[in-house]
Amino acid sequence: MLIESGGKSPRIHESAWVAPTATVVGDVEIGPDARVLFGAVITADGGPVRIGTACVIMENAVLRGTRKHPLIVGDRVLVGPRAYLSGCTVGEEAFLATGTTVFNAATIGRRAEVRVNGVVHLKTVLPDEAMVPIGWVAVGDPVSILPPDRHEEIWEIQAPLNFPREVFGVDRSPELMTEIMTRYARGLSRHQADRIID
After folding, report:
1. Are strands 125-126 and 144-146 parallel, antiparallel or unpaired?
2. In total, how many domains does the chain have?
3. What pLDDT digit, counting tens, does each position of 142-192 carry?
4. Cα-flanking dihedrals φ and ψ of residue 163, to 5°?
5. Which residue range is the domain that position 52 belongs to?
6. 5-35, pLDDT tens digit by residue?
7. Among 62, 139, 142, 170, which residue has the fewest nearby CB atoms (within 10 Å)?
């Protein structure tokens, strides 16, 4: 399904293919020979999404561009089933396996790999040809790649990156979720005027 949002419609190269059950919303550009498989969602949620040549976006992956962080996927990238990418940049020939999560302002280098259920956190820079093992977490710049059971070390690097401030524009406080959800719901109300175009 193709949806116009904010007055912008998806632009899909004539040689690309989007499955009939995939959803592509707003300022999204899909390059030559790209394939978007069943159930995938690609949405320009206030910011653009650009997908390069010969990329494969697999089943039920979610890719989001945001107002502050566009989503850019280089050429010949595989985005695995159930992957979630928000406002990040992915270099050419990267491999993002099933269940990969890549957060806002992160950068994945050329030919880097994030294996099954790996996480690349906010503002993290994963260098060219680097690898995040199955279920591990990449965090920071320079990057540290740590197993999930080392939460204290991950948090020590992650906390100063200030996820609530970077993504939602609010500081941590007892009212954090009230502020975030009020702003987020208001921002998402822009979709009320979306229009199905195909």
Report:
1. unpaired
2. 1
3. 999 999 999 999 999 988 888 888 888 888 888 889 888 888 888 888 888
4. -50, -50
5. 2-196
6. 989 999 999 999 999 999 999 999 999 999 9
7. 142
Q: What pLDDT, on a 0 to 100 scale, did the predictor assign at position 66?
A: 92
CATH label of the domain that carries residue 151: 2.160.10.10
Residue written as token pair 């089943």: 59
Structure tokens at 191: 């979709």
What's the pLDDT tens digit per position in 48-96? 999 999 999 999 999 999 989 999 999 999 999 999 999 999 999 999 9
Place of tokens 């206030």: 46
Q: How many CB atoms lie within 10 A of CB 67?
A: 12
The distance in angstroms from the start CA to the end CA of the chain is 6
Distances (CA, A) of 107 to 26, 89, 115, 167, 195: 23, 5, 16, 15, 32
C-alpha 105/C-alpha 124 separation (Å) is 7
Tell me which residue of 46, 1, 44, 21 sits closest to 195, measured CA to CA.
Answer: 1
pLDDT at 170: 83
Give ∠ CA 103-105-111 in degrees, rounded to 5: 80
What DSSP character marks residue 99? T
